[in-house]
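This part of the workshop introduces the protein records we will be handling. The structure tokens are whole numbers drawn from a learned vocabulary of backbone shapes. The record below serves as our worked example for the rest of this section.

===
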Amino acid sequence: MGICYLQCGHILDYYHGIYIDLDIYAEYSCHLFESISLDNIHEIFAILKDKDIIIEDPLNLNGIFTQYQNLSELEKYFDNNMSK
């Protein structure tokens, strides 16, 4: 069983996506995903859960992405609540 640690990054306007680091530590390997778009973030969470990977999400990023479907609303949330 692996563990996925979610860390807050920053939104890049020119990519129109969310830039976060997903470090997946498995028994023999570590994978790094970068520049994950809002469109496929939920799909990635589903894949991780399906593979029985524990998601450590102290900032509740999964919940934040679920609540703020609109990129501009999500950007305002990060601007107001996350340190840069």
In short: Residues 71-81 form the longest helix (11 residues).
